[in-house]
Design goal:
5-stranded mixed sheet; alpha/beta; D-Maltodextrin-Binding Protein, domain 2
Length: 576
């Protein structure tokens, strides 16, 4: 267990130091890869090659449209890299099943061929011992090995057809699917390319995306850059704050607003005192469930919190959790809270929105405070990832195409909207927007590359400033550096702990505000007296023996979440 942990920690340490070296301030989305001063092909042997590109298509996309798009893509990639692209557009509902079957079928054929070749070598060796020579293997009939894939569009002389067991670039949707392909070794490591010939990607994609795409220190795919998470804003009515003698700095958090809310409720009929649901901010829960599901072991992890500042502790010791839980109960019981879709006027509001929406709807009349910045999750970061199959003709050549999809506006727009003049055109009065000509080609913008390299939609100019600002404010919690703390040795312990957490959650939910407030100390002690909590929050000490904390009794350091986190942080800091 110790060796497994240390090995993974080494990978994480390399991950952490590499990512932190690249800041968001270096993101220059308009930078031209050709102007970086690097040799274009970085020593690659350049010859005509055909690669496959697998993407999901939306309803209504026709085969004829895919042919035209493939032809347009080839005009770009052949001129740029002497690479032809065979485009596979799979209906979105079937995409995961089709791609998974393709990869698994190729893997089966490759394994069978390797097994057959090994058996042949063994037979030849045995024959040689007998002084014999095996007759040559009979070639299979051409019909049985005929390549089932051809380019839809003739790419011209010098570009080979796709091999039967070839698969190159494909889109992976969702973190679970991403881990399926990485854990089964169906995708290539891209570390060398991302740190070498494709390092321009680090200037176009926010560092946290690569952070999330790392598995044991290795990047296996390039996530499509997009706006992450969502803000939760605390809005405070300017007029009413002035009326009751408050400034914005007096009302930056919900607990700071308690007396203000009471005054609004008492003195302003027709005004909703609290709009929205009050929740603790920046909470990370540790259990066998996801990090946003309640657990009595928790951490408060803000965007600026460093690894060594993270505490893994009893949730009832965390002031933000206690105060916000109490106020939500109190304000609800007093009838101050509305969770309606909209209200005409409110004292304070907890609103999930984009910066542009807040500016347009609320900035004139309300003070705008950030209750929680956008927090990226593994599922969000890896919602759409371009990867290179293990069965590719060339990892380097495939990465050139993936790099174009993240840095080249022309290719990115063709894959998303189709062919200019066929599927769209520039607006005659405003050439900063495009107009749809027909509905023959339809794609989800998140599935076709870096969204910031193309138009947000038909009739919308290419202004992504709000979304880019959101990404700069977003963060990848440092606690996500440890996602494997549940393992075979502590699985049963964690399952029992989860049941205990559910009991505490139900107990808290049943309490009214004053009962909760007066019971915090009792709840804290109840948690600390629980055996499952003790063993998962356990950090070894010199007094363990006299307290009866022995491995025979289940006090195993590697089973403890707190110990695993402490060891991980220690290792990263010592090797950073």
């Amino acid at each position: 267990m110790k060796r497994r942990l240390v090995s993974f920690l080494l990978c994480v340490a390399l991950l952490f130091t590499g990512v932190m070296a690249t800041g968001c301030a270096n993101l220059e989305e308009d930078e031209d890869p050709k102007e970086t001063g690097e040799e274009e092909n970085d020593g690659l042997t350049r010859s005509g090659m055909t690669l496959t590109l697998w993407v999901p298509t939306q309803e209504g996309t026709t085969e004829e449209a895919l042919e035209l798009v493939e032809e347009a893509i080839n005009k770009i990639t052949q001129a740029e890299y002497d690479t032809a692209i065979k485009l596979y557009g799979i209906p979105t509902a079937d995409y995961e099943d089709v791609v998974k079957k393709q990869v698994e079928d190729i893997n089966t054929r490759v394994e069978e061929a390797e097994k057959k070749a090994l058996e042949r070598r063994k037979a030849e060796r045995e024959a040689a011992k007998r002084g014999e020579t095996l007759p040559p293997e009979e070639e299979e009939d051409d019909d049985t090995i005929k390549n089932p894939y051809d380019l839809i569009v003739d790419s011209g002389a010098g570009y080979p057809h796709v091999e039967e067991n070839q698969m190159d670039i494909f889109l992976i949707r969702g973190y679970d699917n991403y881990r399926y392909y990485t854990d089964n070794f169906y995708v290539q490591s891209l570390n060398e390319e991302i740190n070498g010939t494709s390092k321009i990607l680090k200037s176009y994609i926010y560092p946290s995306f690569f952070d999330a795409a790392e598995v044991d220190g290795t990047i296996y795919g390039v996530p499509n850059n997009h706006a992450l998470g969502e803000y939760t804003y605390l809005l405070v009515n300017k007029e009413l704050a002035t009326k009751y003698g408050y400034s914005q700095k007096d009302l930056m958090t919900v607990p700071n607003c308690q007396q203000f809310v009471e005054k609004v409720a008492a003195g302003d009929a027709g005004v909703t005192p609290v709009w929205g649901t009050i929740t603790p901010s920046y909470m990370q829960y540790w259990s066998g469930r996801s990090s946003d599901k309640f657990s009595v072991i928790a951490s408060r992890v803000t965007a600026d919190k460093t690894l060594e500042e993270v505490k893994i502790e009893n949730v009832f010791n965390i002031t933000d959790y206690v105060d916000n839980t109490y106020l939500q109960k109190l304000f609800t019981e007093k009838g101050y809270v509305s969770t309606a879709d909209s209200v005409e006027k409110f004292g304070i509001g907890l609103v999930k929105a984009t910066p542009a929406e807040i500016e347009a709807l609320y900035a004139n009349d309300y003070y705008v405070n950030i209750h929680q910045s956008p927090e990226g999750t593994l599922e969000d970061y890896c919602s759409a990832v371009f990867a290179v199959s293990t069965f590719t003709e060339s990892t380097s050549r495939s990465m050139e195409i993936i790099t174009l999809l993240n840095t080249n506006e022309e290719l990115r727009t063709v894959l998303q909207y189709g062919v200019e003049g066929e599927h769209w055109k520039q607006d005659e009065l405003d050439n900063s927007i495009i107009v749809q000509l027909n509905e023959d080609y339809n794609m989800d913008i998140l599935d076709t590359g870096n969204i910031y390299m193309t138009y947000p939609d038909y009739g919308v100019s290419m202004d992504w400033s709000s979304e880019k600002s959101q990404n700069l404010d977003s963060f990848y919690p440092v606690t996500y550096y440890m996602t494997d703390f549940v393992h075979e040795s502590n699985k049963e312990l964690v399952e029992n702990f989860d049941k205990f957490c559910a009991q505490i959650e139900a107990q808290v939910a049943s309490m009214d505000a004053e009962t909760f407030k007066s019971s915090v100390s009792m709840l804290k002690n109840l948690v600390e007296d629980n055996e499952y909590y003790q063993k998962l929050a356990y950090v070894p000490s010199s007094t363990d023996a006299q307290k009866g904390r022995t491995e025979e009794k289940g006090w195993i350091p590697d089973n403890s979440i707190a110990y695993q986190w402490a060891e991980r942080v220690k290792f990263i800091l010592e090797n950073g």
